[in-house]
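Hey, resending since the last one bounced:
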Amino acid sequence: MRGRLDAAAQRALLAEAEAALALAPLRRPMAPWGKPLSVRMSNAGALGWVTDRSGYRYQPAQPGAGGSQNGGPWPPIPPSLLALWADLFRAEAVAPPDCCLINHYPPGAKLGLHRDDTEAETTHPVVSVSLGDAATFRIGGLKRSDPTRSITLESGDVYLLAGARRLLYHGVDRIKRRAPNLLDAHPLFDDGAGGGRLSFTLRVAGATALRA
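The structure tokens again:
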């Protein structure tokens, strides 16, 4: 959905994100194979998606010392994102999201090909919202080896994975500098090379909070 959020809606979401990240700061998490990701991450909602040497999972508390589940709760999902979800699925019986993964992609960051399959049920849609710099988003098939194609996600775009496409493999190949950038000079995102990209991924995660 190209340009689903206009400039005013993007600024409002950024303000809501700033409030959430003050309670749950962005971190560079560790992948299960022991290497830090290039993407900084946080969450909002009843559950948060986390990764460390123990694997991928959802949990109701922020990682504490040593990555254990002993931090504070995640902040609430930004109201404008809940309103977007409700608007998108007004005519459908879709549960509200209980997780919003917040990713910051500084220049040079990537996210490898993967699919969202650690939720309790994978029948619920996944909605992603982009702010700031553009991203080369790669989308494939139901197998990692399937052919892929690339599209550009700009600030204000919304991407939806649902139905037969819910479990498609996807990833972010690179960040494309856009100036001026909504995130430029912002204290949370400016690393001297531009603000980068901020993405919000809404999911219905369910009971996997207890699964290691």
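Residues 115 and 169 are 5 Å apart (CA to CA).

Sorry for the duplicate.
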